[in-house]
Design a protein that fits this description.
This protein is α/β, with parallel strands linked by helices and 210 residues long. It has one domain: Rossmann fold (3-Layer(aba) Sandwich), CATH 3.40.50.300. The chain is built from nine helices and eight strands. The protein has a five-stranded parallel sheet, sandwiched between helices. A hairpin with a 5-residue loop joins strand 5 and strand 6. The two termini are 13 Å apart. The relative contact order is 0.19. The structure holds adenosine monophosphate.
């Protein structure tokens, strides 16, 4: 199954992508994680992306389209994939169509803006593997340590409240129109993000069966 997870930053796409990829045995692909990895390695693409990420802005379309094209060509995507954080603009969605990629479903996780701001201030991510945790809603077994790989949990710079507001603005202006794009294509299902991560997962898995 070729699946897209849509939603505002902090709506829980990354967490859900990690859980669902285990259920479906297909890779979860996060453009944000790929870019952050490039950044930590100091590659040219990473350095190019840094100023955009730090300001809560989107990285230019041609950069992320190149990243996704390369990633989807890998063998592990043959039986399907979950896209988390791509596409984020209409030109990115069009580029995906032009690559001849057929999308089976698009799940939009809806969470009101007020909740996003509170949620993101409590979000912690693994500095090694990128797994996502929350101080209240998804506590790691050991404080400050990643359950998946034992890495240190940190707060992303772009999860600070001021940047979150900028990212929400960018989301409403540039990413939200994708709902209409995929609704027109008959692919969109809206899922209300729940307080409990497992409850949202259950709603998504049910939507995937329909
Ligand atoms: P994320 O981890 O998905 O919230 O992404 C973190 C940041 O990476 C975003 O705020 C953007 O600056 C950049 N980014 C990730 N995916 C995309 C995309 N599809 N298009 C443009 N920028 C992106």
């Amino acid at each position: 199954m070729n699946l897209i997870l849509l939603g505002a930053p902090g709506a829980g796409k990354g967490t859900q992508a990690e859980v669902i990829c285990n259920h479906l045995s297909i890779p979860a692909i996060s453009t944000g994680n790929i870019i952050r990895e490039a950044l930590s390695k100091g590659t040219e693409m990473g350095l190019k992306a840094k100023s955009f990420i730090d300001a809560g802005q989107l990285v230019p379309d041609d950069v992320v389209i190149g990243i996704i094209k390369e990633r989807l060509a890998k063998d592990d995507c043959k039986n399907g994939f979950i896209l988390d954080g791509f596409p984020r603009t209409i030109p990115q969605a069009e580029a995906l169509d032009n690559m001849g990629i057929v999308i089976d479903k698009v799940i939009d996780i809806e969470v009101p803006d007020e909740k996003i701001v509170t949620r993101m201030s409590g979000r912690r991510v693994c500095s090694k593997c990128g797994a996502s945790f929350h101080l209240e809603h998804r506590k790691p077994a050991k404080e400050g340590i990643c359950d998946v790989c034992g890495g240190e949990l940190i707060q992303r710079k772009d999860d600070h409240p001021d940047t979150v507001l900028d990212r929400l603005k960018v989301y409403h202006e540039q990413t939200e129109p994708l709902k209409g794009y995929y609704e027109k294509a008959g692919l969109l299902t809206i899922v209300e993000g729940q307080e409990d991560v497992a409850d949202t997962t259950a709603l998504i898995l049910k939507a995937l069966e329909d």
